[in-house]
Amino acid sequence: MTAVEFALLCAAALLALGPVAILLGRRAVATPLIYASSAVLCLALTGAGVAVLAGMAGVSGRVLPIGLPWLGAHWRLDALAAFFLLVVGFGSAAASVYALGYGRHEHEPLRVLPFYPAFLGAMVLVVLAHDAFSFLASWEVMSLLSWALVMAHHRAEGTRHAGYVYLLMAGFGTMALLLAFGLLAGSGGDYAFDAMRASDRSPAMAAAILALMLLGAGSKAGLVPLHVWLPLAHPAAPSHVSALMSGVMTKVALYGLIRVVFDLVGPLAWWASPAVIVLGALTAVLGILSALVASDIKRALAYSTIENIGVIVAALGLALAFRANGMTATAALAFSAALFHIFNHAAFKSLLFMGAGNVLTATGQRELDALGGLIHRMPVTAALMLVGAMAISALPPLNGFASEWLLFQSVLKSPELPQAGLQIIVPAAGAMLALAAALAASAFVRIYGVGFLGRPRSEAAQKAVEVDRFSLAAMAALALICVLAGVFPGVVLDLLAPASEAMVAARLPVQADQAWLTLVPIAETRSTYNGLLVLVFIAFSASGSAWLVHRLASRKLRRGPAWDCGFPSDIANTQYGAGSFAQPLRRVLGTVLLRAREEITMPPPGDGGPARLRVHLRDLFWDGIYQPISTVINAVATQANRLQFLTIRRYLSLVVGSLVSLLLVLTIWN
Amino acid sequence: MDRMVFDIAHLLAGGLVLVSFMMIYQERLGALIRVFAMHAVVLSLSVSWQAWTQDAPHLYVTAAIALVFKAVVIPGALLRIIRRMGIHREVETVVGSGLTMLAGMGLVAMSIVLMLRLTETVDAFAREDLAFALSVVLLGLLMMVTRRNAVSQVVGFMSMENGLILAATGAKGMPLVVEISVAFSVLIAFIVIGVFLFRIRERFDTIDLGALEEYRGENQ
To answer: I want to staple B156 with a disulfide (CB 3.0 to 4.6 A). Which of A496, A594, B94, B144 is the partner?
Structure first.
């Protein structure tokens, strides 16, 4: 059995688990059975991906006689697909293990269980598809099933709105993809990926396809300005599904983008790349800025996903720019940085969403201002969350640092680009990405500090208890991946080298050969990074200074009230809150980009009541793009409504009029 | 001989278009129905001529169906209906009949230009036939749009269908089944419309469609 057949079998089994869940119904065995089987199947898929990447199994394809009769369904597991299969596999496996514990708290399991494994199966099929029809069909199934999962808690406030917006955006995205594949197939109309890859097209046509792919895949991944559904829909879903949607499904969308833009379209002109780079950098900054002011923990995480997607897309744009100029080694650097960050983000974003899920289970609260002090009551969750927060903030020696470091290495190579325009744009975008990275650190200090440190701000936070072992085990596995990928980045980079070789015709130097596990992206004389060394240094200096402090100063341990600022008060609001922590940055950056406006109500003199500060935020894109569009559509629909109440003769006249005008057009045309 | 055959087919199809024009300006319902009967007679003549020239005996059946149903049964039934309703002497003022005639001429010109251009590969026989058939269909539609009386709309619909039959018989090798099913569906439509006419009349005391529109609470 070839690797692709094995992967297809696993995907089919995942799809089949959906009906099984319906048959099992409300039986208690349903939840553990479905999630455990999903976890096993996803681990098997991860294995298949690793086997192909490591060269243990060959690249294989398969044509099944289903779908369009003259086309069949083409499936193929090449290096790129294998890498994404690995990402989808481990992310889904972790989410399934997590759900073994988390899913027990589900009130209506039948709203989640049938869709969950089928959703996983559809994501795997998107990655394996090798013709436009299978790709789009799997893509649509993935969209619809994730919509059903978003709607699982449809009675909760805002969920239906989120589902509606998501459905609209998904429809729009698929429309754009459909057009992109139509252009790719050309007049010949062969929808197999092999035929698309073989045909030639003009630079303008290739750029048009790139634009359509940015719209189609970008709307699913969360590129600005198509990101509006993401902070609504991702938090609305159950937490393990949020982890999947944010950590894994956005990566499947990026897979679509990479597959078309790097593989099928063929060579792209250099002038196509600045749009991608700028779009990515803008997305990163806007995403993280919104995360910084969001008061809902899951919403903040969803915004942070937008930021990471922006970083990845900017790296892909850099790879396009370098590749168009024949600098394949540097293109491989940027491309590997993008893939590495995809891998990393899948790990730490899933981890963080699971942590948020734990908080939700323990307290029932998602608002940061209702949390606080959870580190005492949920120590394991808090420690694992800390790993995730540090990794996403790109702190060494964790994995987020390694991938962002690689990205900035490729930014630093931009002076070697021949075009003056790119020489200006790339460092500017690099500065924006650096700003985004710094803001990300501050956003996660806020989430972690307000959520887990300090004193409880509500009774629910005070009474929180640690969650079950399955959830913690899944999180621990992801945290381990974050640490290992950060300390040994060379292993991951060597693993994804075949994908880079297939897409940009070059790879990074083999990292396994480097002494002391050092990461050498270009040449040893230029820049190196050694995660292990950093880890050892941090461990030594931290434990050394702790030892010194305890040795030379006092050994006594004193426990005092947290964050009372020298003013012992019972009111938890005297601490730093989510709003107050974000205030400085909100004032500096948010006035323009988020339309932040503060409104202070002072009590009249003599009144003992408190002064109030209200912050109004407006979504620039919602007001500037979506609102006008929906107004126009509504106006047109209202006008068209009148067609419903015409008289019989007017209907007839309408029919005759349109017939005659069509015939007239035909007459003139010929 | 060939020239002769073509000219006669041309004459009959052209005659059908001419009778369609005659229907447009008939103000009295009775006269309109009689002209429609004439329309059907010309159609059946045309179809039998096609049957003779194409050597296709089943077309005689089509011609017979057209003659029996369209020229005798349906006009007779319609005449009975309007007598029973007492509207056989009613004058339906056709608004702007001159303008409608002009529009009809425009439609005929358009369909001839269009068909002659589109069907350059087909033999001349079918080309002319198709052009005239499209004209008859469009004129029938035009009549349905300009008339307000339900009976004249029914007549417009039927004449439109005559155009379809003309097109179908012009092309060689059209099986009889198609024509029979078309004829049958027209018959059913006639029965349904006839029943509706009485229902409308019962309810509104008129078969002027304007009354229906008033009933729906809309001004025109």
So the answer is: B144
The answer to whether residue A106 sits within a structural domain is yes
Chain A hits for B113, CB-CB cut-off 8 Å, are 667
CA distance A307 to A301: 10
| Selection from B24, B44, B42, B77 nearest residue B179 by Cα | B44
The average pLDDT across A70-78 equals 89
Contact A663 B110 (CB under 8 A): yes
- Asked, for residue B88, whether it belongs to a domain, the answer is yes
Q: Which amino acid is at A215?
A: L
Q: Is B204 exposed, middle or buried (0-12, 13-18, 19+ CB in 10 A)?
A: middle
Domain around B148:
2-215
* Chain B residues whose beta carbon lies within 8 Å of the beta carbon of residue A658: none
Q: Answer whether B205 touches A (CB < 8 Å).
A: no
- CB contact (8 A) between residue A648 and residue B117: no
Higher pLDDT, B97 or A212: A212
Domain contains B220:
no
- Quickly count: other Cβ atoms within 10 Å of residue A318's Cβ: 32
Q: Does A374 map to a domain?
A: no
Question: CB distance A649–B114 less than 8 Å?
Answer: no
Nearest CA in chain B to A652: B145
Does B118 lie at the interface with A, CB-CB under 8 angstroms? yes
| Per-residue pLDDT, A372 | 85
Domain count, chain A: 2
Distance CA A573, CA A581 (A): 12
Nearest beta carbon to residue A670 from set B118, B142, B145: B118
For residue A645, the enclosing domain spans 620-669
Query: Is pLDDT at B10 greater than 60 in this prediction?
Result: yes
B8 touches chain A (CB under 8 A): no
pLDDT at B212: 65
CA-nearest residue to A665 within chain B is B114
For residues A654 and A646, the answer to whether their CB atoms sit within 8 Å is: yes
Who wins on pLDDT, B51 or A570? B51
How crowded is the C-beta side of B104, counted as CA atoms within 13 Å?
A: 26
β-pair partners for A597: A616
Q: How far is B217 from chain A (nearest CA, A)?
A: 10
DSSP state letters, B188-219 = HHHHHHHHHHHHHHHHHS--BHHHHHHHTT--
Q: Is residue B66 part of a domain?
A: yes
Mark yes or no for CB contact B145/A653 under 8 Å.
Answer: yes
pLDDT of residue B210: 67
Q: Which two tokens stand for residue B119?
A: 């069907």
Residues in A closer than 8 angstroms to B102, CB to CB, are: none
B145 in contact with chain A, both atoms CB, cutoff 8 A: yes
* Predicted local confidence at residue A354, as pLDDT: 95
The pLDDT tens digits of the residues spanning A35-67 come to 999 999 999 999 999 999 998 888 888 888 887
**A276 neighbors A134 (Cβ within 8 angstroms):** no
The string of pLDDT tens digits covering residues A91-146 is 999 999 999 988 888 888 888 999 999 999 999 999 999 999 999 999 999 999 99
Type of residue at A259: R
The count of domains in chain B is 1
pLDDT single digits (tens) A585-620: 888 887 887 788 888 888 888 888 888 888 888 888
- What are the tens digits of pLDDT across the range B183-216? 767 777 777 777 777 677 766 666 676 666 666 6
Of the candidates A211, A246, A281, which is a domain's last residue?
Answer: A246
Residue B110 lies in a domain: yes
B84: nearest Cα among B210, B189, B201: B201
Q: Enumerate chain A positions whose Cβ falls within 8 A of a Cβ in B.
A: 645, 647-649, 652-653, 655-656, 659-660, 663-664, 666-667, 670
> Which contiguous run of DSSP H or E holds residue A366?
none
- Compute the nearest-CA separation of A661 from chain B (Å): 11
Q: Are strands A597-601 and A612-616 parallel, antiparallel or unpaired?
A: antiparallel
